[in-house]
Amino acid sequence: MAYDYINDGNIDADALQKGIKGNKKARMLQLLKMLNEETDENHPLSTNEIIAKMKELGLEVNRKTVKDDVDLLIAFGYDVVIIKSSNNSFYMGERNFELSELKMMVDAISASKIISTKASNSLIEKLQHLCSRYQADELLWNRDVNISIKPYNKSVNLIIDKLTRAIGKKRRVNFKYNEYNMDKELQPRHDGKVYDISPFFLVWNEDHYYLVGNEYSTKTTKTFRIDRIDGSSLVISKEQAVRKPERDLLLKYSQRTFSMMADEKNERNVVLRCKNNLITIMVDRFGVGVDTKIVDNNHFDLTTKLYVTKGFFSWLAKFGDDIKVISPPQVANDYKEYLEKILKQYK
């Protein structure tokens, strides 16, 4: 039988606390909490220190009970490391996450343009509980570096939650989509058009978080920035979502898309002639499995499927004459026109 220990006036709090202090299970839990929060490889606790801390909490322990409790934690799979001496010391060794893994997560959260400052701080605080208090301080030194790029949309978490539930239930979603006006204020796009979307998945791309789904009216795959979705208008429809396309759709978007606003109608098989110094950049962009062929001592041809957009042309332009579109001819011509329009502004 379970009990809720809520002091509603009918429970004697002092008696309850007395029961906890004399409880061996409470002692064990307190030791586990102490090892998790206050120890690491550089900050072990000695037997005497543990006894002193336990007594401050009103828990009666001695050297034998500390040893027995540590042995039991080890038997249950906790990586409690024992430093042998006349006054054994202990620290929590392997945890669910290495410090380096927590650091990467904290830095990713801090740098994210989708997660608000308040939400970032909340997530980071939760991650801090997964290491010692000493290590927790090491996670925070650059937490506020990216504070100026944080979003204004405070309902992002609720939007993500609703979209995730809709995907799980295979339901369509309806929402308005925002854009900035010249006063830098968000306003509904296309006079407040309500989009009817079958959500496929959420995906990170170029520092932003996107919804990829099928628009009911046009029967095409479209993408929407999560932080531009109007949270107040977002509802999960009762209508069944269309069936998801092939499983490699996410891979296609990550490898072929230079703008998440790309239209799948613009997918092309493109051949790019690149100077050899670009090989690392091309592998980073398209993956180690991308089709390449040596042309001469200075060049290689790269063949891949991608979405031809202004974003793709903008990406090409930054490489100058180190890269050239070989085929298809229409893409090469479109890229030429793209560059000519830019040059006209400087004539």
From TrEMBL:
Q: Per the database record, which ranges form the WYL domain?
A: 160-230
SUPFAM superfamilies from the UniProt entry: Winged helix' DNA-binding domain
- Which residues does UniProt call coiled coil? none
Under PROSITE patterns, the record lists:
WYL
The record's annotation in Pfam families points to: WYL
**Superkingdom as given in the UniProt entry:** Bacteria
Descriptive protein name: WYL domain-containing protein
Classification from the root reads: Bacteria, Bacillati, Bacillota, Negativicutes, Selenomonadales
